[in-house]
């Protein structure tokens, strides 16, 4: 038998710590820097000014120790607090696709798209019949689902069209989406070279369309204020 006492626990990644910090009320964005040994070196936080700095720092210390067994020296925490009005003007970090997965389920196929942005990972899903001749459309729908979740449903996006065309020797995938913003609709176009993974190409083209305006879309809905 293996001696479990000899097992060395895996140190959390910077992304793991940032995802945990995003759960603390009042924290809008964070950046964790680890040293070459993956030990905590710096924590940079942007937060609302509705809570006292000591309360936020205390929550950071407690959560990271309880969840990750990481002890934090408060002197390593850099905290900037802004009013909600100013926070709403800070654009979300440019989201990136982390994974596009196809899963067969009987006569159905499910697409799962994972997107990371602003210390948060959102997972979108969409399904189709396994004999669907246009799977790229379903992958685009899963990407839209992930983006809406990433933005806490502050926007509703409608997929208008997904198509491919040949440009010289390269095949290009085009996605057109429409979003309702306040009292008007805006239409965006995204593109990606169509590689040997059509679903991933469709996801990248969809995110390309929305990435161009995501930093504006996040400003449309006022935040709900929390009282301490």
List keywords for this structure.
228 residues, alpha+beta, GMP Synthetase, Chain A, domain 3, Double Stranded RNA Binding Domain, 2 domains, three-stranded antiparallel beta sheet, 6 helices, 9 strands, disordered C terminus
Mean pLDDT, all residues? 82
Helix proportion range: 25-40%
The DSSP helix count reads 6
- By secondary-structure content and strand pairing, the structural class works out as alpha+beta
The fraction of residues in strands falls at 35-45%
Question: Whole-Å distance between the termini?
Answer: 50 Å
CATH class of the largest domain: Alpha Beta
SSE run: HEEHEHEEEHEEEHH
* Widest sheet, order of strands: 1-2-3
**Broad shape:** elongated
In the CATH scheme, what's the topology name of the largest domain? Double Stranded RNA Binding Domain
Number of strands: 9
Using only C-alpha atoms, the radius of gyration works out to 21 Å
User: Which ranges are low-confidence, i.e. pLDDT below 50, for 5 or more consecutive residues?
Assistant: 217-228
Largest sheet: 3 strands, mixed
CATH superfamily of the largest domain: Alpha-isopropylmalate synthase LeuA, regulatory domain
In total, the number of domains comes to 2
CATH architecture of the largest domain: 2-Layer Sandwich
């Amino acid at each position: 038998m293996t001696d479990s006492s000899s097992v060395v626990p895996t140190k959390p990644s910077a992304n793991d710590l940032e995802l945990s910090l995003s759960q603390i009320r009042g924290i809008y964005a964070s950046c964790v820097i680890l040293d070459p040994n993956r030990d905590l070196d710096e924590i940079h936080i942007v937060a609302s000014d509705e809570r006292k700095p000591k309360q936020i720092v205390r929550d950071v210390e407690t959560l990271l120790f309880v969840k990750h067994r990481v002890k934090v020296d408060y002197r390593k925490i850099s905290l900037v607090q802004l009013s909600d009005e100013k926070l709403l003007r800070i654009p979300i970090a440019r989201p990136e696709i982390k994974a596009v997965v196809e899963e067969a389920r009987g006569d159905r196929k499910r697409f799962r798209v994972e997107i990371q942005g602003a210390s948060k990972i959102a997972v979108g899903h969409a399904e189709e019949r396994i004999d669907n001749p246009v799977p790229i459309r379903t992958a685009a729908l899963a990407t839209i689902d992930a983006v809406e979740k990433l933005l806490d449903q502050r926007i509703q996006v409608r997929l208008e069209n997904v198509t491919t065309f040949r440009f010289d020797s390269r095949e290009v995938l085009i996605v057109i989406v429409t979003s309702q913003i306040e009292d008007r609709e805006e239409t965006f176009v995204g593109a990606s070279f169509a590689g040997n993974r059509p679903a991933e190409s469709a996801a990248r083209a969809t995110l390309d369309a929305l990435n161009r305006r995501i930093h504006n879309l996040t400003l449309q809905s006022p935040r709900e204020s929390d009282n301490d």
